[in-house]
Design goal:
Elements lengths: L4 H4 L3 H11 L1 H12 L13 E2 L4 E2 L2 E2 H18 L2 H18 L10 E2 L4 E3 H18 L2 H17 L1 E3 L2 E2 L2 E3 L4 E2 L15 H14 L2 H17 L11 H14 L8 H21 L3 E3 H14 L8 H12 L17 E3 L2 E2 L2 E2 L1 H18 L12
Antiparallel strand pairs: 1-2, 1-13, 3-4, 5-8, 6-7, 8-9, 10-11, 11-12
Helix pairs in contact: 2-13, 3-14, 4-5, 4-6, 4-14, 5-6, 6-7, 6-8, 8-9, 10-11, 10-12, 11-12, 12-13, 12-14, 13-14
Length: 374
């Protein structure tokens, strides 16, 4: 049973500040990712677990890509081999089972192969590269390279614009809709980080050109992205807009990029504070906290009061439950006082990384690059 905010209030002190000092949150989140069954025997990772009906959703290639990054990050922190083994299983599922070499594309879900997303492709590439930096396994780089080029070719919709969704197997663009994930937009720059990463690995100038072109287009259009919707739907847009802000990291030395980053953090914070009493997403708290800490290197001062508040609020989303399928994972969101039953691997990955970064910042030990940003 998912506890309400009131039911959790007595556990808040133990579940936030004290755990931040002991990194218990990290062990609990890692245990959920390893033992909850969210990663299936095939290595693929389900989109989320629904605690109210005790069911997991279908395997998602995007979420599996995020899981590779998360397990690799956990291994780097702890040196526990079970995290590296889990990362390898997830990556093997992607490269040997889900990857369609003929189409040079990853389907959205498995075993169904009817859609492919531009955004998902970049997340998968970044996951594969995160593990490749550790193992040096050639297959990881080869598939990442082929996917990166497939993103530029298959999803191209014009000058610096990419179709968000393709229908498979013919790769025709899916009709667009008002929902942000069904339209091109500045959020796609997070996926384009894959091109920046591939450029650093391969030195191929095409990758740098594609990233820089989408960066320019995103900087030109991002101000119209927020609020972009009405009511609680703005919270979903905050999540997507944070993707854009995260992807600015490689160019924060530029004045225009640093300016967009600072203004964007302030804007997300403003909207979050206005909407959070009614609806809040744990990943938005995590993304905003990560952004605050990453942006200090760009000369954007960390507001310690706001950051501390976000860390406190984020920590409460981590579930305290003896059920291995729930306990340690992060709930996707909250409506009013009720936490949603979606125990989400991406929310968990973002949450554990944000809380770890905050702890390292407080200890004066934060040293993180965009490469390891989940």
């Amino acid at each position: 049973m998912i506890m309400s905010r009131n039911q959790m209030s007595s556990a808040t002190a133990e579940g936030s500040i004290s755990e931040l000092s002991k990194t218990t949150f990290l062990d609990q989140a890692g245990a959920w990712l390893l033992n909850s069954g969210i990663q299936e025997g095939s290595g693929g990772v389900a989109r989320y677990y629904l605690a109210d009906v005790h069911q997991s959703r279908a395997i998602s290639t995007e979420i599996t890509g995020y899981a590779v990054s998360t397990f690799t990050y956990l291994h780097a922190l702890t040196r526990h081999e079970q995290y590296l083994d889990a990362a390898k299983r997830a990556a093997s599922f992607l490269t040997q089972t889900a990857w369609d070499a003929r189409l040079c594309i990853f389907p959205f879900e498995y075993p169904e192969k009817t859609l492919a997303y531009f955004f998902d492709s970049g997340i998968i590439v970044r996951g594969l590269l995160s593990l490749w930096r550790v193992t040096g396994e050639r297959e990881l780089l080869d598939v990442a390279n082929a996917t990166g080029r497939g993103m530029a070719v298959c999803f191209a919709a014009g000058s610096s614009e990419y179709h968000p969704i393709l229908q498979l197997p013919d790769k025709c663009p899916q009709p667009r809709a008002d929902q942000w994930s069904r339209m091109p937009g500045c959020y796609q720059l997070k996926s384009a980080l894959a091109w920046h990463d591939l450029f650093k690995v391969t030195g191929e100038s095409d990758y740098l050109h594609w990233y820089e072109s989408l960066l320019s287009e995103s900087l030109r259009t991002h101000e119209s992205f927020l609020p972009g919707a009405e009511g609680d739907r703005v919270m979903d847009r905050l999540h997507a807009y944070c993707y854009f802000l995260e992807a600015l990291s490689p160019r924060v030395e530029r004045a225009d990029v640093a300016g967009a980053l600072g203004a964007g953090i302030a804007s997300v914070s403003k909207y979050l504070r206005a909407i959070e009493p009614r609806f809040a997403r744990s990943d938005v708290y995590a993304q905003l906290l990560r952004l605050r800490l990453l942006s200090e290197g760009a000369g954007v001062a960390v507001d310690r009061l706001d950051a501390s508040s976000e860390a406190e609020k984020l920590a409460v989303f981590q579930q305290k439950n003896p059920d291995l399928r729930v306990g340690g994972g992060f709930s996707f969101g909250r409506r009013g006082d009720q936490f949603l039953p979606h125990i989400n691997p991406v929310s968990t990955g973002f949450g554990l990384q944000a809380l770890m970064m905050w702890r390292q910042y407080l200890d004066g030990e934060l040293n993180i690059s965009t490469d390891v940003l989940i």
